[in-house]
């Protein structure tokens, strides 16, 4: 019902998880979606629906939670969730990729309401999230959480490993990573991705990336004194 | 040659420690290099002096993240590891995110010749020229470094690069950020000396009837200052302590309404596979006073 592209959010009921496929189809022009478009969808929905302390009215609040989409490729699910949560009008989605649209095939934080970073080149989000967590800590904003979403293939980039090792050693408790694992890394991660984080002192959880309750429990698990990673496993890309 | 004991890097640590005390927005990010100089400041401000270890992608990424939260990050290491190695981070984690930072480099083009090519970054300023928004300062003396660092940190959320060197002039000049300073006036052309090249340029031109301009800030390029100095004779020699010709395009742009000639002197692009000392390298690059005299004189006469 709220998936009507021409509706405004004003008086209509807020879109839910079930409306997201239609919102994505406004960008892809197809009700059947590529895995890249939807691998992140459930994790993003649970975060924005139940975990993150940020909304359209608090995008500039100093003490908001920050969500950084590092895996900027295939941002349709991200845009759909932001639109569903009212960060920008649903009507914008159909402009996806157009010259004057704020919604590019990789997000630009200066153009997309609610986007904390611009991404596209892989391996930039986690280091930026480390700096964000350091900045919040230095300002005494201890209640704000920093979240960053990366992909299992993106994890190939060495910059991630600089950030994982440092954040673990530094005990950056307010830092959280979500790894969407759709088995797309060319050489795989022998022994699992979580082991790379655990080896550096992170708290870890590996869950079914389609199961909202499992995701929620993993997202909200306590992890005193340590950063936390949730590896969300979804259908293999290939 | 100099009685000044303090290096620009020493001054950087002193000035920055003071800024950390004064301004809660400031934060220093290090990648091991320089960490010893900041030990005391780190004890005083444990959340605002962060050493990420030997991780230069993270050095710039973390600076970008700090800036995203409203802090004023100051990131420091050798120029080769600050600008060249994490160049995409400079492009994306700072410029593309629309945030500012102060990047402070040491070692520059040739400060440690015995260290060889791996520790030489003569292309740093040219690389930054491929990105929008950078202010580039090249102090020639610790007192100028102090002034320019304070200016850079206080300059809102802008992008600032301060390039420190062990090569320095005998005396500090009354520099104004962004302005060229007239050090000597003459009638047969203008020699623009950048940062630590000033003493050699002054010695090289002692017997030549030329105007000597001094630049401790090269970006933005003080086009109006150069135009005012050239008068009717548009002959300009640039003497830069990094890649030769880096500012040629800026000089041409400044003088586009005037018939003019520009000679760009600096570090040659070719690898120089020798070790040895700084004076030996300056001579090999044609940047000591004797070579500069010959090159300037033959261009202007």
From TrEMBL, chain B:
Residues 6-171 form the Transketolase-like pyrimidine-binding domain. One of its GO terms (molecular function) is magnesium ion binding. SMART domains: Transket_pyr (SM00861). Pfam families: Transket_pyr, Transketolase_C. Gene3D superfamilies: 3.40.50.920, 3.40.50.970. InterPro entries: PDH/Transketolase, THDP-binding, Transketo_C/PFOR_II, Transketolase-like_Pyr-bd, Transketolase_C. This is Transketolase. It comes from Kitasatospora cheerisanensis KCTC 2395.
């Amino acid at each position: 019902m709220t998936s009507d592209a021409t509706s405004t959010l004003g008086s209509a009921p807020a879109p839910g998880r079930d409306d997201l496929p239609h919102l994505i189809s406004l960008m892809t022009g197809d009700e059947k979606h590529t895995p890249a478009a939807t691998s992140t969808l459930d994790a993003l929905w649970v975060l924005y629906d139940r975990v993150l302390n940020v909304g359209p009215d608090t995008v500039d609040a100093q003490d908001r939670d920050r969500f950084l989409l590092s895996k900027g490729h295939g941002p349709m699910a991200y845009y759909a969730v932001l639109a569903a949560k009212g960060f920008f009008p649903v009507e914008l989605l159909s402009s996806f990729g157009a010259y004057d649209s704020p919604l590019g095939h990789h997000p630009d934080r200066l153009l997309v309401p609610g986007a904390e970073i611009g991404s596209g080149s892989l391996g930039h989000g986690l280091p930026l999230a480390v700096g964000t967590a350091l900045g919040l800590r230095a300002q005494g904003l201890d209640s704000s959480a920093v979240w960053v979403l990366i992909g299992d293939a993106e994890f190939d980039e060495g910059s991630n490993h600089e950030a994982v090792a440092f954040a673990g050693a530094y005990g950056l408790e307010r830092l959280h990573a979500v790894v969407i694992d759709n088995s797309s890394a060319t050489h795989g991660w022998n022994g699992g991705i979580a082991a790379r984080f655990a080896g550096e002192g992170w708290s870890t959880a590996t869950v079914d990336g389609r199961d909202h309750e499992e995701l929620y429990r993993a997202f909200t698990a306590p992890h005193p004194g340590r950063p936390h990673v949730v590896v969300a496993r979804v259908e293999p890309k290939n | 040659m100099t009685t000044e004991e303090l290096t620009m890097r020493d001054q950087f640590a002193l000035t920055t420690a003071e800024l950390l005390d004064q301004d809660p927005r400031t934060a220093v990010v290090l990648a091991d290099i320089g960490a010893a100089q900041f030990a005391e400041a780190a004890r005083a401000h444990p959340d605002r002096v962060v050493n990420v270890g030997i991780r230069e992608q993270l050095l710039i990424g973390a600076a970008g993240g700090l800036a995203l939260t409203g802090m004023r990050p100051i990131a420091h290491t050798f120029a080769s590891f600050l600008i060249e190695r994490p160049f995409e981070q400079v492009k994306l984690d700072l410029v593309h995110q629309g945030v500012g930072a102060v990047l402070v480099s040491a070692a520059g083009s040739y400060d440690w010749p015995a260290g060889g090519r791996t520790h030489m970054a003569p292309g740093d300023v040219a690389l930054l020229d491929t990105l929008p928004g950078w202010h580039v300062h090249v102090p020639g003396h610790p007192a100028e470094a102090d002034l320019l660092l304070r200016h850079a940190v206080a300059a809102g959320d802008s992008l600032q690069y301060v390039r420190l060197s062990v090569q320095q002039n005998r005396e500090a000049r009354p520099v104004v950020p962004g302005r060229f300073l007239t050090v000597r006036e003459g009638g047969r052309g203008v020699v623009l000396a950048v940062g630590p090249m000033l003493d050699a340029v002054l010695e090289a031109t002692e017997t030549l009837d030329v105007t000597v301009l001094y630049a401790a800030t090269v970006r933005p390029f003080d086009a109006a200052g150069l135009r005012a100095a050239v008068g009717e004779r548009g002959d300009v020699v640039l003497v830069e302590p990094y890649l030769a010709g880096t500012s040629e395009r800026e000089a041409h742009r400044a003088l586009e309404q005037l018939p003019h000639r520009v000679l760009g002197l600096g570090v040659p692009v070719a690898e120089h596979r020798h070790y040895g000392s700084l004076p030996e390298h300056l001579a090999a690059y044609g940047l000591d006073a004797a070579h500069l005299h010959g090159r300037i004189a033959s261009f202007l006469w």
